[in-house]
Task: inverse folding
């Protein structure tokens, strides 16, 4: 059987099923942004890990080593943020092709270290090995949160509003710029920067998790059509999303128009924005948003609602319900 | 600058130096078999991670997928064992080339699952992505131990005896069999089995860590000449090792003789045996060994002593001190 026949998530389900016979009290395993490991009476640890491989996740001649180091850590910090936890340490495994210069690796570590310092996350360990051909980076991050406060995908409730903590589509716009080698205009470079230097919403996640009216959280890594579906499946709910309410940067709007890009596809199915997708009690939205705005100088963007139903996203455009066929990123889609 | 100019451990020192400006109380970072993360008043967590890349760490046409799954987890459990900790959960990242069959991956997970069950270590999370060409596996394992009981490389004391918990050289003998495609005799297959299906000394590590006379521990992954040196550097001691006392299996002795292998090189510099290298109070050795033998039906093999001096191994053969030039495995040695 070929992998694309079952897809990335089918394969993960297959692994999870095999391990159903093993579990430990207080532990949460496969199926959320992070696993949970009990710490003490008042705290839990959360752990996530992400693998980046050259020519799959990045092109060495398009991303600078400093950006690569930043991004490798950022995507993991984003998973910690999605649990509402505080990152406390990271682990880095690197597989290095023989011809790689030490100076290149130093720059990777410079980007990694800069972001580590920003969120005060020490590097605690890892592994360094040779790689045959492709630079390979696996990062793991450990976070900490109050016991029971981690936000799970399964926590969405009917009538919750669905919000995101930032613009969608900029990162996949940046990828389009790179893939089509568009000229280095200010706008194009901004989008590429969003793709290469995503800012994990660690502080936003910590702030949100302090409020009990915040229910489910996930980070947008594969596009909301895919990531929201994870919440809906885990929570056994559906959602109504108003495409016109999805926050889009002026830059993306402008470049998409000039390049004749399918903007709707970029903002619903484009991945790697690493903003948080959050569901919260509808009648608390206004109060939460006021506090959030005071803390971060920006709005929580309300894009829809959780409704009853079995794991389906209903999309609204111009007040009409429409059917979208695009799906988010999946590593084993047929090319 | 090229990587082989500074070597694997020079590169790790370079990374560790960059992160010297960050640390957290109760945490132990880079520099031991595992990092330590404080848990509660009476316990600590330890964490390790290892990256395996096709054609660097394994050849897909020589190792079966079931063996590969076993080995990927075993090498990490061995690091947990070297801390004297109990493994409590694992994380698995896999980078998968497009043409890989689901059945192959199922077999990898079968081997991984079998070993997970043996030591009751649930799989808690991970990442699955595409890989361009080489199957790539990163495993992380979390273990738990009594606070302050983790055995560090820095704990060796002068006059300690140095012991190992099993035969050395069998695994690198197995690698020789594979590389030279020797015939599938019973003896050759046994050595290959030692190379592909190492048994992590988890229970041995747990038993040893219960005794305060056990000082430093490390697992033998790169060969004792390299791994013992890690203990000596961290403890600022030297060691006197009697080559004639290194335990060698009858099988390896026989095959090495018939193939004219340099047996001394295999047992001092050959890696991947994943036995534990332990230092303990000399006058407790007899009592410890009696208890160890009762628990495991085998001896602790005493191979030498810790002596004063700055991080140097003195080798004895036939009661004469000799100089050995071989060094253990290092990923960035010049080919």
Result:
């Amino acid at each position: 059987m070929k992998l694309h026949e079952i897809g990335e998530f089918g394969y993960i389900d297959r692994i999870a099923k095999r391990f159903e016979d093993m579990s430990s009290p207080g532990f949460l395993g496969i199926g959320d942004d992070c696993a949970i490991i009990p710490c003490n009476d008042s705290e839990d640890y959360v752990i996530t890990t992400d693998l980046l491989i050259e020519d799959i996740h990045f092109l060495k001649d398009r991303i600078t080593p400093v950006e690569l180091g930043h991004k490798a850590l950022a995507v993991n910090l984003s998973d910690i943020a999605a649990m509402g936890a505080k990152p406390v340490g990271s682990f880095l495994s690197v597989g290095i092709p023989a011809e790689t210069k030490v100076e290149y690796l130093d720059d990777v570590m410079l980007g990694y270290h800069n972001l580590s310092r920003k969120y005060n996350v020490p590097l605690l360990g890892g592994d360094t090995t040779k790689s045959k051909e492709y630079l390979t980076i696996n990062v793991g991050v450990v976070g900490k949160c109050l016991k029971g406060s981690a936000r799970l995908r399964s926590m969405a409730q009917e009538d919750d509003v669905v919000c995101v903590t930032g613009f969608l589509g900029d990162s996949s716009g940046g990828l389009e710029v790179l893939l089509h080698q568009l000229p280095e205009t200010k706008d194009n470079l901004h989008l590429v920067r969003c793709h290469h230097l995503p800012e994990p919403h660690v502080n936003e996640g910590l702030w949100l998790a302090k409020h009990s009216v915040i229910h489910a959280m996930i980070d947008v890594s594969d596009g909301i059509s895919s990531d929201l579906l994870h919440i809906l499946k885990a929570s056994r709910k559906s959602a109504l999303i108003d495409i016109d309410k999805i926050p889009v940067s002026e830059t993306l709007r402008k470049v998409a128009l000039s390049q004749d890009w399918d903007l709707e596809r970029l903002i619903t199915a484009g991945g790697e924005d690493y903003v948080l997708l959050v569901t919260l009690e509808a009648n608390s939205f206004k109060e939460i948003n006021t506090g959030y705005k005071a803390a971060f100088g920006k709005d929580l963007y309300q894009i829809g609602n959780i409704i009853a139903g079995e794991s389906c996203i209903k999309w609204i455009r111009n007040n009409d319900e429409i059917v979208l066929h695009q799906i988010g990123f999946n590593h084993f889609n047929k090319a």
